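Final report, Chapter 2: Outcomes

The project's central promise was a pipeline that accepts a single protein chain and returns its three-dimensional structure in a standardized token representation, suitable for archiving and comparison. That pipeline is now operational. To close this chapter, we reproduce one record exactly as it appears in the project archive, with the input sequence first and the structure output second.
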Amino acid sequence: MPAPLLHIETTPDLPASAEVVVIGGGVVGTFTAYYLARRGVSVALVEKGRIGAEQSSRNWGWCRQQNRDARELPMATKSLDLWDRLKAEIGEDPGFRRCGLLYLSNDEAEIERWAKWRDFAAGEGVITHVLSAAEAREHGKATGRDWKGGVFSPTDGIADTSRAVPVAALGVMKAGGTVHQFCAARGLELEGGRVCGVVTEKGTIRTRKVVMAGGAWASSFVRQLGIRFPQSAVRQSIMAVGPNVAGLPDAVYTAGVSLTRRGESGGYNLAISGRARVDPTPQQILFAREFVPMFARRWRFLAPGGTQGWRSGHEGVKKWRLDQPTPMERMRILDPRPDAKLVAETRRRALDMFPALRGTAMTASWAGYVDSTPDGVPGIGEVTGVPGLVLAAGFSGHGFGIGPGAGHLIADIVSGADPIVDPKPYHPDRFGSSAWGKVAEF
């Protein structure tokens, strides 16, 4: 079954024009529209399916600074402050709380890497505690095991993946923006090489500024304009167990299995970090060379997949017409089948790791396509050669936690405001100058 998701009612009528059109109702696109609307900008958010229905509701829900790549850490820190404010700003609860994130390990090399990250992060004002064996055993007492060490980041937290993005969309409308579900953007109209409109299945919106935040669909969309954006997705699977389990932490990582408490339901999501299936697609073949360093770093966690990625159409390479249905309309919501073997292995490891889960029933399992760039850092910035088009995609499994900061930064870029963080490390032009950049370590 699909991941749990709050369904909301959105704006019924498409506007004839808007100052900014945001394409993609995931966490990044929705927060971009939110921060634009709060500034009084006329913004329309268009989504081919439901708000938050793809990877934005299918992830762990971690909002972390801990173990962030140095390029993403400033955005992660800003995002936590923004998460803190959302409930009061919108009047609805996105389910965010700073419960702290716990990492446990028996791998001395892994613990040493975490300690080095702690030393680096201390210079950035981030608090994290490296745990001794005794401290790790106490923090991880729900496992009933001894641990060589770990880390605990007390100011990090989690948000409810079933609510956070729909709640942000409610905030867009409350602030005066419009939100349109089941309204696929087919392409852009240009005038003198500059953006002048967005063609949707329900009509054209006149605009001079567009944000493409289409997640796993972004590369195939911008390819229609002759833009080469290297992007590739893998299929990750998660399972959920029922509520009323006492004595478990809110969020804990181990190499064997990781656990996260789910929002108001009180149940838990379980996953094996990094494990994924690679479903071949035309786009993966096209960008294979760019992803060699990423694959070299992550290949131990990846396994061959099947044909569903090819059939889904999100990583196609063909051109489409704007007056006919596009692949986005044929596949409204990417809802791939979870990896049954991985789900079974996740459950086995979880029952072994957390005795309190024994006797609980699996309530659901689902999968999602996690889109990545060659270096594991998102591409954010105005596209060279197409004035008015800002790309915001390739968040590489990190988008949910840094979604508010990313949305704020993109709103800054679009509106000409001082950026909340330095935008230079994210600009997509970097993929044109070097195929093999530094791959994110975390």
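Archive annotation: The mean pLDDT is 95.
This record, like all others produced under the grant, will remain available to the consortium after the project formally closes.
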